[in-house]
Design goal:
single chain; 4-stranded mixed β-sheet; Glutaredoxin; globular
């Protein structure tokens, strides 16, 4: 007799949190310009999304382009704030304060289109 496999629990919105799946660690880089309200909002929104959907499986690196503007060249940053998903591959970018949760989930491939 085959033992039943444990199915990940779905959230109230029907999405399965990635932390309960087989996805490896997520490396995210948020480019900001100082401690502006828009930058702070982007970080808070990203942190909230990660805690809900990627709990225990993510690392956020914040790059302040006011302190080190040359770092923008590596990821071809043209606007800020910009979120770059480094891992899992492929690299994805989302521009803005990340307030549209559904757009961020789709953009990061956490939720299907």
């Amino acid at each position: 007799m085959k033992a039943p496999t444990k199915q990940p629990r779905k959230k109230a919105n029907g999405h399965v949190p990635v932390a309960e799946s087989d996805t490896d660690r997520w490396n995210l880089r948020l480019y900001v310009a100082g401690q502006t309200p828009r930058s702070l909002t982007a970080f808070k929104n990203l942190k909230d999304i990660c805690e809900e959907y990627l709990k225990g499986k993510y690392h956020i690196e914040v790059v302040d382009l006011m302190e080190n503007p040359r770092l923008a060249r590596g990821d071809q940053i043209l606007a800020i704030p910009t979120l770059v998903r480094k891992l899992p591959q492929p690299i994805r970018k989302i521009i803005g304060d990340l307030s549209n949760t559904e757009r961020v989930l789709v953009g990061l491939d956490i939720q299907p289109r």
